[in-house]
Amino acid sequence: MEHSEILRQAADAGVRLVSFFWCDNGGIIRGKATHRAGLAGRLNSGIGMTTAMQALGDMDQLQVVPGMGPGGEVRLLPDPDTFTILPYAPQRALLLSDLMTLEGEPWAACPRDFLKRMLAKAADLGLTIQAALESEWYLARREGDGFAPLDESLDNSSVGMTPARPVVDDILDALERQGIGIEQYHTELGHGQHELSIRHAGAVRAADNHLIYRETVRNVAYQHGLYASFAPKPFPDQAGNGCHIHFSAWDLAGQVNRFYDTADAQGLSPLAYQFIGGIMEHLPALLALTSPSMNSYRRLSPGSWSTAYVCWGPDNREAALRIPSRFRGQEMASTNLEFRPADSSSNPYIALGGLIAAGLDGVARDLRPRAEMSVEQDPSLLTPEELERRGIRRLPASLPEVIRALESDPVLTDAMGPLLTDSYLAIRRSNWELFSRHDAEFEIKHHFYKY
Ligand code: GLU
Ligand code: MG
């Protein structure tokens, strides 16, 4: 969008504050706002921010990362195409931002730039990536010092839609007015749990949309006196919140789905198998990017449809990669891969960038997934001998294990680059160090409303 058009729309809508938002290494949406009076200048020069923001832990405790201390500045430079007047807060608007150096180059610790760099590598192979982040969330009330689910509804039950209807209608209205396409809605397995899926888009836009979506759901719920939580496991005795990542690779014109091939029994191209092979190869290190918080490991357990094994399978909700069945008449358009061990405590740019890096490594090395690693049932029901024979490993059950896996995965860390890797790992370690010193209640409380 032209800057002049942003200024015109902001003035017409009576916008006072425009937030320049970004998502940090902890998956937290942060930002600073400018008054409209200064917007014209700040669209060009950005808003100043300390480099330390990429080194702040869950309690804003500053981690030791060279170059990220009390000295040092970057610029939050907004992407004009993301300008959004907020329907739930009409005097406000947002712009999603890149982190730039003072010289005007992308900062090496910018998550959005990491995703753009991976997309540029894909483009070198003639590929564009479409993605959709399919999020689940709870609606809850405050109860004393904690939260309680809004109702006791069951999966896909209509009774859960009734108490949530006023909130969900306002969420729909707000999303539509922000130009976010809505796909489907249903109540999920947990009490008070919902899933409202949004339309796929180019990968950067898909990650941007996920942030806009999280902001919208949280704010609208709050206006109804409720709290929305995207945390991986907000209630220990209820289902977790996934943020399954659907993605597909298309040609540069966006016309041909390069994952689709009628010659194959599963309708998948050699390229799709290479992506699957690359992702199998880089699990569990990828989990450090897609399921990055201590609370994530309360969610990832066998028998809860969140996945717990390194395997893939047709329509298998217990597989790390599900191959969704296609829709008749829309075979090419509906061909995609669904990565399931992902949640909204991740940074969507880093999670998508990591998935693409793993997939491209599969292409570069022609890694094809082992056919025996494709399972149609719950892998936890296979005997240890059968798992061994098929080469199916259990996903790690704790954060330190995936941190170690990422530390020793040069494909992912080289793709991220040293500054993003070091700061990211420092934040992941600090999440573990903080919450491993406390009980489950403390961990849940401090993840519940961050996401
Ligand atoms: N809530 C499950 C998860 O944690 C997913 C349930 C479903 O298949 O939608 O991923
Ligand atoms: Mg779901």
Largest sheet properties: 10 strands, mixed
Global morphology: globular
- SS summary, helix count: 14
Low-confidence stretches: none
Mean pLDDT: 96
In the CATH scheme, the class of the largest domain would be Alpha Beta
Instruction: Give the H and E element order.
Output: HEEHEEEEHEEHEEEHEEHHHEEEHHHHHH
Count of all domains: 2
The CATH level-2 architecture of the largest domain is identified as 2-Layer Sandwich
CATH-defined superfamily of the largest domain = Glutamine synthetase/guanido kinase, catalytic domain
Helix share, percent: 25-40%
Structural class: alpha+beta
Task: Name the bound molecules.
Answer: glutamic acid, magnesium ion
The count of β-strands is: 16
CATH fold naming of the largest domain: Creatine Kinase, Chain A, domain 2
- End-to-end separation: 29 Å
Strand percentage: 15-25%
Rg estimate, integer Å: 21 Å
Description:
- The protein has 451 residues and is an alpha+beta fold.
- It folds into two domains: 3-104, Ubiquitin-like (UB roll); 117-448, Glutamine synthetase/guanido kinase, catalytic domain (Creatine Kinase, Chain A, domain 2, 2-Layer Sandwich).
- Helices cover 35% and strands 21% of the residues.
- It contains 14 helices and 16 strands.
- It has helices at residues 3-12, 39-45, 111-124, 161-177, 203-223, 270-282, 287-290, 296-299, 348-364, 384-390, 399-407, 410-416, 418-435, 440-448, and strands spanning 17-23, 29-35, 47-50, 73-78, 84-85, 92-100, 128-143, 146-149, 182-187, 193-198, 201-202, 227-229, 243-250, 309-314, 319-323, 337-339.
- The strands form two sheets. Strands 7, 8, 9, 10, 11, 12, 13, 14, 15 and 16 form a ten-stranded mixed β-sheet that branches. Strands 1, 2, 3, 4, 5 and 6 form a six-stranded mixed β-sheet that branches.
- A hairpin with a 6-residue loop joins strand 5 and strand 6.
- Helix 11 (399-407) runs antiparallel to helix 13.
- Glutamic acid is lined by residues 136, 189, 239-240, 242, 299, 305-306, 317, 340.
